[in-house]
């Protein structure tokens, strides 16, 4: 097989890239190691920045998003038994976010790609095994599909294969630097068939730890609890989960957390990670393949989207003008934004969680950070600007 851009990974990054390239007349093939059902079931984050919504609409994937997505104009920060709203539009010139699950975006993009006549091939159960000669003019992806080893010859390779993929590791170790931070806690995520108890997301700091109230639809709530690293979700009965959530969200005034049947639980470790540079020869990394943020602030999916917008622009510019200027600047352009998202996610995580070894001083200092956001329009605007997404440079 041969194509212009060989895309490894059919997550949001790889699927959106395929869509953007196809619309510009650039050939591509997507290789996804898992089957379609698995990819469409995987539970991930659910907050889309304005820019993410805009690009999905522009590329024809906005239909269901506009019908079923829930526009949100702000969030609540809850601490010391009180709630404080951070308003987005007033602080950002009218921007807001959309609640729409990543799994739904993946379903929409897969359906578009498979249904469109002449759409780029999307191979499921096609596992990339190696990228050969990524720094040459003719890289080759070796992959296994339908029990056979095959090759895909490309002009460019897009490594969109997530944190555990092979693309990141195809760059020689002496050419990369990695930056990492591990957090001494995880999130226990809960999906429940119950109407959300709030209209906007609640980020709560409590002396027993962080809790987040999010949602998937008017009938499905998505909730998270800070738990110690290495927690087994089976150690948490559903009753214990609801009790703990109720405690951490408790307000001085009148407020009740509605309970309902829990349909899924999972534990996610928290990590910050960046690999630099994001390009080696004709191999370009995007999304989780190049960087991880902790989920507080919901930047992971949105960063993957801005990486692939930047990559598509660079490839289209090269096709139209012959200039490789944007391709050469790809890593630098992406990393500027990546580090801003790393900073914001680290700040949100560190401010809202309780470290097991936290001192009373550190506790008070974090509450002071939240008091500052609650009382200063400038501090609140700083949070809002980052939350809705910094402009694409
Ligand atoms: N060959 C082919 N596909 C692979 C391989 C491989 N060797 N290794 C991994 N993959 C596939 C995975 O099965 C997965 O479907 O690559 C895809 C990567 O998708 P994601 O992990 O969703 O990563 P990405 O597309 O970068 O999405 C951004 O950021 O914070 C997160 O929740 C956010 O998952 C979202 C991610
Ligand atoms: C989610 O809905 O899954 C979600 C929302 C906000 C976050 C993280 C996750 O900061």
Automatic annotation (TrEMBL):
Positions of the FAD-binding domain: 2-345
Entry coiled-coil feature ranges: none
One GO molecular-function entry: FAD binding
Superkingdom per UniProt: Bacteria
InterPro entries in alphabetical order: FAD-bd (IPR002938), FAD/NAD-bd_sf (IPR036188), RIFMO-like (IPR050641)
Keywords linked to the UniProt accession: FAD, Flavoprotein, Monooxygenase, Oxidoreductase
EC number(s) from the headed UniProt entry: 1.14.13.2
PANTHER family for the chain: P-HYDROXYBENZOATE HYDROXYLASE, TRK SYSTEM POTASSIUM UPTAKE PROTEIN
Xref: NCBIfam families: PRK08243.1
Record's protein name: FAD-binding monooxygenase
UniProt source species: Streptomyces iranensis
């Amino acid at each position: 097989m041969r194509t212009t851009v060989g895309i490894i990974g059919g997550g949001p990054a790889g699927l959106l890239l395929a869509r953007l390239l196809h619309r510009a007349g650039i050939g591509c093939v997507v290789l996804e190691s898992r089957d379609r059902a698995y990819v469409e079931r995987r539970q991930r984050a659910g907050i889309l920045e304005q820019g993410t919504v805009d690009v999905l609409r522009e590329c024809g994937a906005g239909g269901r998003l506009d019908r079923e997505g829930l526009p949100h104009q702000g969030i609540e920060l809850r601490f010391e038994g009180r709630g404080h709203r951070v308003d987005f539009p007033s602080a950002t010139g009218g921007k807001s976010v959309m609640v729409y699950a990543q799994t739904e975006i993946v379903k929409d993009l897969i359906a578009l790609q498979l249904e469109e006549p002449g759409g780029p091939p999307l191979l499921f159960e096609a596992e990339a095994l190696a990228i050969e000669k990524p720094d040459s003019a003719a890289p080759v992806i070796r992959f296994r599909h339908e029990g056979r080893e095959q090759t895909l010859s490309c002009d460019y390779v897009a490594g969109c294969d997530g944190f555990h993929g092979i693309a990141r590791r195809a760059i020689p170790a002496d050419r990369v630097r990695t930056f990492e931070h591990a957090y001494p806690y995880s999130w226990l995520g809960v999906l429940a068939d119950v109407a959300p108890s709030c209209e906007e997301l609640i980020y709560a700091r409590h002396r027993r730890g962080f809790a987040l109230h999010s949602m998937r639809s008017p009938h499905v709530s998505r909730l998270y609890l800070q738990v110690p690293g290495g927690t087994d979700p089976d150690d948490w009965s559903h009753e214990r989960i609801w009790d703990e959530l109720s405690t951490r969200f408790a307000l001085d005034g009148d407020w009740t957390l509605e309970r309902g049947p829990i349909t899924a639980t999972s534990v996610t470790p928290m990590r910050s990670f960046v690999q630099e540079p994001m390009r080696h020869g004709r191999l370009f990394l995007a999304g989780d393949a190049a960087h991880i943020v902790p989920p507080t602030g919901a930047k992971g999916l949105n960063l993957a989207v801005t990486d692939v917008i930047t990559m598509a622009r660079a490839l289209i510019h090269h096709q139209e003008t012959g200039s490789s200027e944007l391709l050469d600047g790809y890593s630098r352009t992406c990393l500027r934004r990546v580090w801003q998202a790393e900073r914001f996610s680290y700040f949100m995580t560190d401010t809202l969680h309780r470290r097991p070894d936290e001192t009373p001083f550190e506790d008070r200092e974090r509450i002071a950070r939240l008091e500052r956001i609650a009382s200063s329009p400038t501090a609140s605007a700083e949070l809002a600007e980052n939350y809705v997404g910094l402009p694409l440079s």
